[in-house]
């Protein structure tokens, strides 16, 4: 099964440069370049959700991993998070704990909203493991010393 295609900058940063200059130029030309600045808050979010959208979007823009294509995914994350939290509050009420059918139904909905929330969080880089996959390795600032340089006059 093939792996997902990685940006050429990431491949070069990892040190896997087994590509010719022509292949690198071709890949750079074919990579999609998206405007990072034009983020619009979806109108279907509530006021509280819009504030959370703005807060998370500003953080993701600051680190440079969000584009306008991610607006809907972030909105789905926020909606599923709020749904999960409201269902959790319902489960904590004493009246529901006596009704097994209603308890089962709410727990199923809670599980579905949690899975959707987690999937969106992974897509956006909001989890630790997904951020580790997004971080570019830093190239060493000091080049390696040539051990034979001391013999050159």
TrEMBL record:
UniProt-listed InterPro entries: Phage_term_ssu_P27
Listed Pfam families: Terminase_4
Entries under NCBIfam families matching the protein: sm_term_P27 (TIGR01558)
Protein name (database record): Phage terminase small subunit P27 family
Organism: Candidatus Fimihabitans intestinipullorum
